[in-house]
Write the structure tokens for this entry.
Amino acid sequence: MIARRSLSLLGAAGIAPLLVAVLPAAPAGAHGYVASPLSRQAQCAKGLLPCGDIQYEPQSVEAPKGSDKCSGGNSRFPELDDDSKPWKVQSVGSTVTFTWTFTALHRTLNWEYFIGGARVAVFDGGNNPPPQDGVSHTVDLSKYSGRQKLLAVWNIGDTANAFYSCVDLQIGSGGGTPTTTKPPVTTTTKPPTTTPPATTSTAPTTTHSHQPPPSTTHSHQPPATTTAQPSAGAWTVGEHYAVGDVVTYSGKRYRCLQAHTVYDPGWTPMAAPALWQAL
């Protein structure tokens, strides 16, 4: 009887590790951040300035809802709260389109945007997961000017957490990505070559005095101009595009409406009308 009980205990002890071994791993959480205009963590990910761990996982700034910090209070990413770092300040106009990219999806309560602690915009998530190819929100910032730090918050619908992104902006009438205007081409028109009359011993005739002078219309014609289409390279993942840039995609031409860097292959000109205009 004792022998049987010992065997039963040994058998149970041998099975327990097997049961632990086949337990599934914990599911991955949702992740996301503002990719355009470049948020602070997006700048770290691109290596624009020295950063800590955030450069490897810009999508992971997760913390409980209600924080007013760029890090959300997450102790892993304190550099995001350091306003003295050389963050790239992006010039924009009175309205700005913010584009989120996601590496995992989660049911969404809403997205909120703050400047100086005041909420300037909110977008309902309907308690649905966001689309895999990202979300864009156009926010009215006409009440603000000069340099501002905007806090964007993605509030999750079925957990107590949120994801945080800060974007450094220069808001004003001169906003928007500057475009380079080429100087006009100066065309130099040479005067017509004049051949002096030949000197002869024959008395000059006067019949030619009634003839109209030689035609000089060519000297008054403006130089011919050709309106060239702006050059357009192929749309490329990883490329930074400025407002006014023209690209080709699937045989069509598109003009950039909002300066951004392509982090996600899903942000095609056809799929992101907030970023591109078909020509």
About this structure: The longest helix spans residues 2-21. Residues 29 and 104 are 7 Å apart (CA to CA). Confidence is low (pLDDT under 50) at residues 1-30, 175-189, 199-210.
